[in-house]
Prior knowledge:
- By secondary structure, the protein is of the alpha+beta class.
- 31% of the residues lie in helices and 25% in strands.
Amino acid sequence: MTDLAVLYEHPKWFEPLFSVLSARGIDFQALKPDGDFDPQVPAPPAKLIFNRIAMSSFLRDAEHPIFWAQSLFAQWELAGARVLNGTSALAYDTSKARQLALIASLGLGAPKTRVVRRAADLEAAAESIGYPLLVKANIGGAGAGISRFDSRDELRAAKEDGLLPTSVDSVLLVQEYIPARDGAITRIETLDREYLYAIRVEGAGAFDLCPADACQIPGQPIPMTAVDLGPELRDAAEAIARGANLDVGGVEVMIDDRDGSARFYDINGLSNFVANPLGVLGWDPHERLVDKIVTWLEEVR
């Protein structure tokens, strides 16, 4: 058994992390979510396990590992292993509805939302929100499962034509459309529940704004720039990270152009950090992540 194992699914996203771990001489296992496990025989592969399962994995494979990994992490935790972004954090990562409940419990602003489990309930929920609005998958990733509707007729036509978003847990969110100031959102990254950095991401109307690979259409890059935040947004992001038990995670917020208020709307447990970090930030956050992993390893030895 090694001291560190990383369970991951995306074939490219974690090469920078693995490179820094190897350069530091840290022994680790890179594990893919394949095969099977015996729930009655606890056998964690390491004392410290890093969960790197993306919610967007269902876009790459219909037989995604999200819920399988959730059960596996629970077993490893029961056996005494420490799982970074383990079952508690994963419970928030797998539910935008739960995320919004946490955000509200902290007294922070968020879009008005209704949660439904049946398409039959969408229209009534929409009437309580008002148009324009978004319909979102409860489990999404890389902007998947989000559609805008500007009228009851549009929503009704999408329902009748089978064109509504779907979620792998069959839960949908009906949410007010927030006009983002300057068409931008802010992604705030945290490490061990503390502020790490923030970036401004242009193109808020596109939804597909993941910073790890910029999720960009060829020839149409999404502008991303480092920003300095005031203490109010920093403190809010740290409070959310603490509430969601995020060892590593991002929080997304936009400024409502109607009244200037901050609206928090997403918690992301899979922080791959921004693409081209040296160009955007001037430093590599993977180095600080590995510094923290070294500390966590010392704690579990």
